[in-house]
Each structure stands twice: as structure tokens, then as C-alpha cells.
Design a protein that fits this description.
5% of the residues lie in helices and 32% in strands. It contains 5 helices and 35 strands. Strands 11, 12, 13, 14, 16, 19, 20 and 22 form an 8-stranded mixed β-sheet that branches. Strands 25, 26, 27, 28, 30, 32 and 35 form a 7-stranded mixed β-sheet that branches. It is globular, with a radius of gyration of 23 Å. The N terminus and C terminus are likely disordered. It binds copper (II) ion.
Length: 657
């Protein structure tokens, strides 16, 4: 049993790396390995902020833009010199060897024009042999499990005695997070594929259980058959302009695949506002090298490193004798923005648009702009004007002193440096916790992140403006109105639960039983969330755990209706836009509304990647009209102010009005 005291002691000795508070680790011995690189020894604000360029396309045209994007292994200067470059994985265009990066180049898309991407798994060495994972892989969780062959893929594997666990070829599949994708292009967790390597053992499964079905569906729709080691997805871009991101989504391996680096932004532009109203531009595909950017994505991630500058992720952690075992949460010891630890960004005295993304595995961020990097509580000196959330612009700009950002969430924000004297240094600071988040206020309900390390994110150095700023000040900005969803046909009552599993406590999604208690279900249990095509549903998600979980639904952008003990508390202004990931607070009911208008197999899950990878994910199957099965967790409609009363287990009933 790891006590809080032991963990803190280990953290102090090891540079507060890989904290696993008692709340995350209900069992297991003390950490077997503490990374030797002390984050306090890394100088901050040395390297300039990296701004991911636009992803090169292989073809553009009126019908669609086409890309061929691979994931490869390479080295990138993430820590400041003289530390060596870090070996990472990342995406880039196969037609441009220099384009690979972490984060990857940004895919620039437009509403109404589809994007087709062939995603290639190129985790192979120079000879074409497979590369093993950069990090320990627990083969015993419910995961892709290629070594299990056709019969045991997408199941639990066996430990093979290695402390690093599975060392075979690494499965990959890409999910465009927040996209309104057809099922075959969604990046389903069981649609993974191995690289087309020379040395794959003959008894391995080359693809996940859903791959062949989605390959046929894609071939039927587009007359294009996926090549081995790849999948081609088409994104229709038939949704509001917004900030999406793409990342790996392999069953039971997402935490380590994403941690190793593969992720990028996908900016869906449109004409919801005239050009120039918002700060811009963002990087474009054919920009001259002198272009100044004022619309900048910031992917914020926590990472730990070894003394050699390699990525560190805990392995061999538990008492399990046979190899690495899943950890219930992860907190890195450094903050990495756009692929560099604690970068510095020279801004002009003008407005900037920042697409903030929390790309951490488990860490919650509480961000503000302060003049003092280490004072706590932080004293914000500039408001962060939120203009959008996951799914597009908000009804109106919302000024925040502090912005809360859970894993996978995006905040589209404007920061106005116009009145800041040149020469001023400001800091983006983080007061979220160095461990599991249960809600509440920093310094009152939990200790904020270490102000010397993970409590700092990015430095701004303000300089004079070199040109006029045509953008509208955020306090005068009028945002376009957006449609609200109509009445719901169904209310579904769902649960977030904590259960003992062997030596660990794991988190599970589920429904409610007849007494209104959480009835936890695993990924492989029969599907319960099966909306009828075209239906609008209210989901009431009861959190029976001590932790905040970011709940993500595929296919849809949803509205948050209410929170609180009965789900009747109106959302904060920043939560009144469209979202694909919502924070579900402990002991509260989080009520959301969504319309499911694409048929097929999708998923909903917790976006704490350690949770998602160990069963906190459930099928979301949208059924053709008339095919909605009984036992799909529905109940009478009730769109009003509060949660509906519990009914039978997974009971389904028709709407009453
Ligand atoms: Cu969770």
C-alpha cells in the first residue's frame, strides 16, 4: 500500500516525478522506479515556443483535400540543450520527411470540404523490422493484444516475464477527437493495425477485430481499399468550425501511444465570422517564412524524463511479479508545450488567439496569466477571454481569471497584450493538482501543482507591435448565434463507478440498477447505449467516485444541460457552447444532450487515458430506426430541470411527451 507520505517522500527524492497519490493506487508496492531526472534542474524559458506548421497535403481540390500521414519514430529536442534529443513518436506527411513532429503539423480544414487521410503505421526500423514500444506495455489489461492471434486479440494478454511487458510490433489507430465521422473513419479502438513490418510473427493478429468490417465499409463507400499497415479515413467536416485534435486510440494502449508523442491539431475553419474579426492568421500550407502568427494552438502536456532525456512512464510498479502493471493515474514532472519543456513566447502588444488543449494523460489544468511565476494563489493580471469550447464558438465571450481544462478539452481563447508595456514578462501558470483532481479550489481543497515545476507552463515576453491589429477587442466581440438541439426522445441514466479489480481499484462506466445504484459495466459487456438513428437523447451521468472524470462521446458535439446534486444547476458560461468532453464532478449528476445522426459503432469513455485503457470505455452504437433493442439503458424523456427517477436496470421505455 502506497501511503500519501511515502509518495510525497518519493516525489521529493525523485523530483516529484510520476506521483501516484494514494487515491490512484489502492494497492501495490512503492514505485519500483523513480525517474532520475529532477524537473527542478531543468532551466525554464530557454527555447522559443514551437508553432506547429500546417500539414502538407498530397492533393487539394474542390472535392477534398488528401493527406498521407504516418506515425514514425524520431528524435526531437524537447528538453533544453545540452540534454540530448528525446526519442519520440509522431505524425508527419510521408511526402515530406522533415514534417514529422510532436505535436504533429496541424491539419487545416474548411467546413464543407472533406479531408481524406491515409494513416500509415510506420513504427519500423531502417530494415523494415518492427520497433518495440518506447514505454512499458502491460499485456494483461483488456487491450489490442496482437500476440493473442485472431482468437485472443482485443482481449487480455499474458505476461511474458519482461519488466517492460509486451515488446512486439505496436498497434495504432487514429481518432479525430470531436469529429462528426462515419463509423469506418472514426478510429474505433478495435480497428487498430500493426505496421507492415518484415518480422511480424506468423501467429500474431495483424489487425483488430473491427478493422476488416470498417475496411469493407470504406471500400464500399469510396471504392478504395486500405493497404496493409494503414487505414484511410474520410472526414466530412460537416460541423461547426472548431478546434479538433487527432491522436491514437488503440484499445488498452492509448495512454502509452499518446504519451510517446503522436498527436496533432486539426483546425476546422469556416465563415462563421468575417476574416480579421478574430486574431490571426494560423499557419497555412504555403506561408512565406516571415509570416507572423496570431492564432496559435497550444498543446499542453506533462511528461517525465530519465537522466538520458528519454521519456519516462512508470512500469514494474505493482507487486505483480511478471511485468509491468497498469497504473491508475499519471502525473509528469515537467510541463511541455508544443513539444518543448517550458518554452518562451515573444508576443507583440496586440491580441492573440490561443487554442488551448490539455493533452495530458490524467492531469487537470487550472490556467491563468500572472506576472509572478511562483506566487500562490496566482494573481492573474490579464483575463483569458474564452470564445469557444470543443465544438465551436460560445454564445458570447467569457472572461476567466482561471481556465479549467480537463484532459482532451479545448478552450478557444483570446489574450489581449495591447496595454501591456513592452519588456514585461508574464507567465501562463497552472494551479491544478499534481495528482488526481476531485474538484474544488486550489490551496483550499487541494494543493496546487508545484509552483517551481508543474505550476508553470509558458512565459510570454511582450514587445512592441510591428503592425496594426484589426481584430475586435474581446469585450466588444459579438459571436454568431448557434442552434440549440430540439426536445429529447429519451433520457438515459448512466454511472461512473469505482470497483476493486484484483489488487487495484479501477473505474468503470455503467448504468443504474433498480435502486438507483451504479451498475458498472466493462468494454466487453453487452452494449447498453444504443440510440436510434436521428434521436436526441439526454444522458444523466452520475459520478459515484471521488474523482472528476472527463467524459467523451464519439460522433457528437453535445450541450451541457446541468450539473450538481440533481443535475439542475445551470452550467457556467464557459460550458454553454458545444462540447465533446465534459467534466463530471464527484457525487454530481452531469446532464448532457446530444443528437445521434450517424449509424454504427462508436464509443464513449473517460478521457483520463489510464482509465480509458483499463475498461472505462463503453460501446456507443447508433442503431437504424426501429432496431433499437430493449435493455439499452433508456427511460422516459425528461428534458426539464433535474435528473429523472431511477427505473429498472437498463430499462428502456418510450417517451411520454
Ligand atoms: Cu476516469
Amino acid at each position: 500500500m502506497v501511503s500519501r507520505r511515502q509518495v510525497l517522500a518519493a516525489g521529493a527524492a525523485g523530483g516529484a516525478a510520476a506521483l501516484i497519490p494514494a487515491g490512484w493506487a489502492a494497492s501495490g508496492r512503492a514505485l519500483a522506479a523513480i525517474p532520475p531526472l529532477d524537473a527542478g534542474d531543468i532551466p525554464k524559458y530557454v527555447a522559443p515556443l514551437r508553432i506547429p506548421p500546417a500539414m502538407p497535403a498530397v492533393a487539394t481540390g474542390p472535392e477534398r483535400d488528401e493527406y498521407v500521414i504516418a506515425v514514425r519514430q524520431f528524435r526531437q529536442q524537447i528538453l533544453p540543450r545540452p540534454w540530448p534529443r528525446t526519442t519520440v513518436w509522431g505524425y508527419g506527411s510521408t511526402a515530406h520527411a522533415g514534417s514529422f513532429g510532436c505535436p504533429a503539423p496541424t491539419i487545416m480544414a474548411r467546413v464543407g470540404r472533406p479531408v481524406r487521410v491515409t494513416w500509415v503505421n510506420q513504427l519500423v526500423d531502417d530494415r523494415g523490422d518492427h520497433l518495440p514500444h518506447l514505454l512499458p506495455v502491460d499485456p494483461t489489461v483488456h487491450w489490442a493484444n496482437p500476440a493473442g492471434g485472431i482468437d485472443h486479440r482485443d482481449g487480455h494478454g499474458r505476461p511474458d516475464g519482461s519488466r517492460l511487458g509486451y515488446r512486439g510490433p505496436v498497434p495504432q489507430v487514429v481518432h479525430l477527437h470531436g469529429a462528426h465521422s462515419a463509423q469506418e473513419s472514426d478510429g474505433h479502438s478495435e480497428a487498430w493495425y500493426l505496421p507492415a513490418a518484415r518480422d511480424i510473427p506468423a501467429d500474431f493478429a495483424l489487425t483488430g477485430g473491427a478493422y476488416a468490417e470498417f475496411r469493407s465499409r470504406f471500400a464500399e463507400r469510396y471504392e478504395l481499399r486500405w493497404a496493409p499497415g494503414s487505414a484511410t479515413f474520410e472526414y466530412d467536416n460537416d460541423q461547426r468550425p472548431c478546434t479538433l485534435w487527432y491522436h491514437d486510440h488503440t484499445l488498452g494502449l492509448t495512454r502509452e501511444n499518446v504519451y510517446a508523442g503522436p498527436a496533432g491539431f486539426y483546425l476546422l475553419g469556416g465563415d462563421d465570422l468575417p476574416d480579421g474579426v478574430l486574431p490571426g492568421p494560423a499557419p497555412g500550407r504555403d506561408d512565406p517564412s516571415t509570416t507572423g502568427y496570431h492564432d496559435i494552438p497550444l498543446m499542453i502536456q506533462d511528461r517525465s524524463f530519465t537522466a538520458d532525456g528519454d521519456l519516462f512512464y512508470p512500469g514494474g510498479y505493482s507487486s505483480h511479479p511478471d511485468g509491468p502493471v497498469w497504473v491508475p493515474g499519471f502525473s509528469g514532472s515537467t510541463m511541455v508545450v508544443n513539444g518543448r519543456t517550458w518554452p518562451t513566447f515573444t508576443v507583440q502588444r496586440r491580441r492573440y488567439r490561443f487554442r488551448l488543449l490539455n493533452g495530458c494523460n490524467s492531469r487537470f489544468l487550472l490556467l491563468s496569466v500572472a506576472a509572478n511565476a511562483t506566487a500562490r494563489p496566482a494573481r492573474p493580471v490579464l483575463p483569458v477571454w474564452q470564445i469557444g469550447s470543443d465544438g465551436g464558438l460560445l454564445p458570447e465571450p467569457v472572461p476567466h481569471e482561471r481556465v479549467a481544462l480537463g484532459p482532451a478539452q479545448r478552450v478557444d481563447a483570446i489574450v489581449d497584450f495591447t496595454d501591456v508595456p513592452a519588456g514585461t514578462e508574464l507567465y501562463l501558470v497552472n494551479e491544478g493538482p499534481d495528482g488526481m483532481y476531485g474538484g474544488g479550489r486550489p490551496g483550499v481543497d487541494f494543493a496546487p501543482a508545484d509552483p517551481r515545476t508543474t505550476g508553470q507552463v509558458l512565459r510570454f515576453v511582450v514587445t512592441d507591435a510591428t503592425g496594426a491589429d484589426p481584430s475586435v477587442p474581446p469585450e466588444q466581440l459579438r459571436l454568431p448565434s448557434h442552434p440549440r438541439l430540439g426536445a429529447a426522445q429519451r433520457v438515459r441514466r448512466l454511472s461512473l463507478n469505482e470497483r476493486r479489480s484484483g489488487e487495484s481499484t479501477i473505474m468503470l462506466l455503467g448504468v443504474l440498477d433498480e435502486r438507483g445504484r451504479g451498475l458498472p459495466l466493462r468494454w466487453s459487456d453487452p452494449p447498453t447505449e444504443q440510440p436510434a438513428l436521428g434521436d436526441t437523447e439526454v444522458w444523466e451521468v452520475r459520478n459515484f467516485t471521488r474523482h472528476v472524470h472527463p467524459v467523451h462521446l464519439h460522433q457528437v458535439q453535445f450541450e451541457l444541460l446541468g450539473r450538481g446534486h440533481s443535475g439542475g444547476v445551470r452550467p457556467d458560461p464557459g460550458d454553454r457552447g458545444w462540447m465533446d468532453t465534459v467534466l463530471a464532478y464527484p457525487w454530481e449528476v452531469t446532464r448532457i444532450k446530444a443528437r445521434f445522426d450517424r449509424p454504427g459503432r462508436y464509443a464513449w469513455h473517460c478521457h483520463l487515458l489510464e482509465h480509458e485503457d483499463n475498461e472505462m470505455m463503453r460501446p456507443l452504437n447508433v442503431l437504424p430506426r426501429g432496431a433499437a433493442a430493449a435493455g439499452d439503458g433508456g427511460s422516459a424523456t425528461g428534458d426539464g430541470g433535474a435528473a429523472s427517477a431511477p427505473a429498472g436496470p437498463g430499462s428502456a421505455s418510450t417517451p411520454t411527451g
